[in-house]
Amino acid sequence: MSQLRRCCVVGCDGTNKTHRLFKFPRNDKLRELWLSFLIPVNVMLSGLSKEQLLGRYVCHKHFDRHQFDGTGNRLAHGYPCLFTPQEILYGVPLRSISDNGLTDHNYSQQPTDFDTEEINSVTGEAVGKTMATTLESVELINNLFDKCFHITLEVQR
């Protein structure tokens, strides 16, 4: 019987029984790229050695469609970039930054000593910023894809 493997993204229920899992890459630059996306949503990964990371997995839910070829195989230099429920639902990495520096991708690092008024204030700001016009959203997404594309090119070099 095969060992049950789990996705290392905090809050994800993906296992090798329910989802396609991908091992951390052996290539140092690509593994660093993965970590740049994953550490904000799982700070526990930051203290692991290369050998320990190579035993970790990320499920297919966290990869957007641009990380796969036309037949559904993950590209050699693909990286996980979908972490919030909205990103997974729409298959597009989104990012909203509030005035206090918290982003959708570092919610696991948010302080827990907020009072209710502060939570409502931060939530209101995030909702307001998320309600951008369609053109602004498309522009943000295009810029993010451009940045990811350039990072991928750097990794390939």
Automatic annotation (TrEMBL):
Domain of life where this protein originates: Eukaryota
Protein name: Uncharacterized protein
Species annotation: Mythimna loreyi
